[in-house]
Write a structure and sequence with these properties.
single chain; 22% strand
Length: 214
């Protein structure tokens, strides 16, 4: 093998080693750290003892390896009475422990309130979810053992609907009626409705959805 051939071979071997190292590093970053999972469980357990009671249990942990949330690790907690599942985590920015119990309990309540309307008007294939701010319980000073209904507060929520079809010229009227339905029936007086259009195989059909703040 001549000198140039040896240089090319060495270069290719070094390149392969770099690629393998990057793959290994990526795979490692996608896996949760067991010690951190134990730590977040212990942290959440102390938090639950201070603010909740024995009817709440930690059943798992969540590792955010994509940077989608305000935390890296969170404890998954369940209310054993009503089966509401929520998170307890240390907020990366504020370094304050947050629980999403009020947000998730209210989201389940509002989802149940609008379910029949959405199925009736948009069909059973329409997917939807409700979101309240994770910190809404703390922001409003709500006792987690006496949450009550979101209707008792000036609570702002986002309702995200996904439809397996393209936009229709009647959608503006259709979704404005949905907003009016919520307001007229005292279901929600402040929030945002966002509608996305996605094919059944998950391909996005419209670059921009329909949205309205009210």
């Amino acid at each position: 093998m001549n000198k140039i051939g040896k240089i090319i071979l060495v270069f290719l071997l070094l390149l392969l080693m770099v690629i393998m190292a990057m793959i290994i590093s990526f795979n490692m970053s996608m896996k949760p750290d067991k010690e951190k999972e134990v730590e977040v469980r212990a942290q959440a357990n102390e938090y639950l003892k201070e603010r909740f009671n024995e009817k709440f249990e930690i059943y798992d942990t969540l590792f955010d390896n994509m940077g989608n949330f305000e935390f890296e690790y969170a404890a998954k907690v369940r209310d054993k009475e009503n089966q509401i599942e929520f998170l307890v985590y240390m907020d990366n920015e504020t370094n304050v422990i947050v629980d999403t119990y009020v947000a998730d309990k209210w989201a389940a309540e509002l989802e149940n309130e609008v379910r029949s309307y959405i199925i009736d008007k948009l069909g059973e294939k329409a997917e939807y979810f409700v979101m309240f701010s994770d910190t809404i319980g703390v922001d409003l000073g709500i006792d987690p053992l006496n949450v009550g209904s979101y209707r008792d507060y000036d609570a702002n929520a986002m309702i995200h609907i996904t439809l397996p079809r393209k936009k229709s010229e009647n959608d503006d009227t259709l979704f404005n009626h949905f907003v009016s339905y919520m307001e007229n029936n005292d279901l929600l007086h402040s929030g945002t409705v966002f509608v996305g259009y996605v094919a059944e195989n998950g391909v996005i059909l419209e670059e921009e959805g329909w949205s309205k703040d009210f």
